[in-house]
Amino acid sequence: MRPIFALTVCLLLAPAALASRQRAVRHPAAAPPPAVSHVFVVILENTDAAAALEQPFIGRLISEGTWLRNYYALMHPSQPNYIALTAGSLYGVNNDNPITLKVQHLGDLLENRGLSWKAYAEDYPGNCSLVVESGEYVRRHVPFLSYDNIQKNRARCNAHIVNASELDADIAAGTLPSFSLFVPNNRNNGHDTSVAFADQWLENRFGSLLQDARFTRDLLFVLTFDEGTKNGDNRVATVLWGRAVKAGAISDFYFDHYSLLHTIEKIFGTGSLGQHDQNASTMMDLIAH
C-alpha cells in the first residue's frame, strides 16, 4: 500500500509545487574549462631542468599549471631544436649557421586552416631582415626566417615576423594571433646571462599579462627551453599554463619538441606536416578541448 499512497500524494501536488520541488533539487553544473583558441609559446635558452626548477617565477607557473616533468629537447646546439619545433624534422640541421629550407612548416598549416600566427622577436630589426645578429638579437632563434617561402615573400614575412614590442598593442586591440612564438633576446632568454636573470625577466614581462583577461582568455601559455646544457641529459623545464589545464598537475609521460608541435596541430585541427610530428605523443589528455 505504501507505493500507492506515495503516488496519490504526488498526483495531488499542484503543478507549481512540483516545479518548486524540481528546482530545489537541481545543482548548477561547474563551468567546464574553456577550449583553447590561442597558444602562446615562450622559449628560453640552454638550461637543464633542475636549474630552471629552482627559479621562483618558473616555480609559480608550475604550481599554477601542468608541469611536463619528462620533457626533452632533441639535440645540441640551439637552432635544430627551433627547426624541429616548427617543421617536424631536423632536416639535417646540426649547427647554428644561417640556413634556408624549402620545407613545409607550422605557419603553412595554420594559414591553410585560415588561422593567424606571429613570431614576436625581441630586438628584431624588422622589414624581413635576414641579418644573422643585431645586438642581442640572433636570427637562429626565429625559425620561420629559415624557411624559403617566408624569406622570398616579403609581405608574408612582414605580416608574421614582428618586433616583440608589437605584442602589447595586439593584446589591446584584441588581435592576438591564434599561435604566437615569443623569442626573447639573448640577455632575456638566459643565453648570455643566467637562468635567474631569465626568470626575473619572465616575471617582469609576463607576470602582469597572466593576470590580464585580454591576454589569458582561452589561452594556453607554454614555457619551454630550446635545450639543456651539454653536460646534462637534455631534459628541459616545460609547463602548460591556463584555465584549460589543471593547476598543480604533473605529467611523467615522455614529451619532446615534436610532441609540442603535434599538440599545437591537434588544438587547431591543422593536420600534421607528415614528419616526426605525425607520430609524436601529444599533450591533449592534459588540455580541455
Question: Helix and strand layout, with pairings?
Answer:
Layout (H helix, E strand, L loop, with lengths): L1 H11 L2 H11 L12 E7 L4 H4 L3 H9 L1 E3 L2 E2 L5 H10 L18 H7 L4 E5 L11 E2 L2 E2 L9 H4 L2 H7 E3 L3 H7 L5 E5 L11 H12 L6 H4 L2 E7 L13 E3 L7 E3 L3 E2 H12 L21
Parallel strand pairs: 1-8, 1-9, 2-11, 3-12, 4-7, 4-8
Antiparallel strand pairs: 2-10, 5-6, 9-10
Helix pairs in contact: 5-12
Can you give a write-up of this model?
- Strand 5 and strand 6 form a beta hairpin.
- This protein is 34% helix and 15% strand.
- Residues 1-30 have low confidence and may be disordered.
- The chain starts with a helix and ends in a 21-residue tail after the last helix.
- The protein contains twelve helices and twelve strands.
- The longest helix has 12 residues, at 195-206.
- Helix 5 (78-87) packs parallel to helix 12 (257-268).
- 43% of the residues are buried.
- The chain has helices spanning 2-12, 15-25, 49-52, 56-64, 78-87, 106-112, 148-151, 154-160, 167-173, 195-206, 213-216, 257-268; strands at 38-44, 66-68, 71-72, 117-121, 133-134, 137-138, 161-163, 179-183, 219-225, 239-241, 249-251, 255-256.
- With 289 residues, it is an alpha/beta fold.
- The strands form three sheets. Strands 7-4-8-1-9-10-2-11 form an eight-stranded mixed β-sheet, sandwiched between helices. It has a two-stranded parallel ribbon with strand order 3-12.
- The protein has one domain: Alkaline Phosphatase, subunit A.
